[in-house]
Give the backbone structure.
Amino acid sequence: MTKKIKLHPYSDRQSFQRVMLLIATLVNFPGIGDRDLEMTKDRNTLTEVKKKLIELADSIDLHFPEGYPSIPTLRKDLEILRDYKILDRR
């Protein structure tokens, strides 16, 4: 009986590219969304992050599907970056 392989949630190419691009966006645009950093559920702040992420993706010819990534997906990615201590908890 073969063991079921449990893959990491970011093991598929698109998810991995999205989270790496999110990190690159935060590095290239320091302070983005800083207005309400404690409340990352603020849609305006995450919309600003999403806009810069897509802008950076387009600059390197990486094109995501229409409407991708969504605000809840970015919220989840930010939480993962906090869990791995890449971002502060605040």
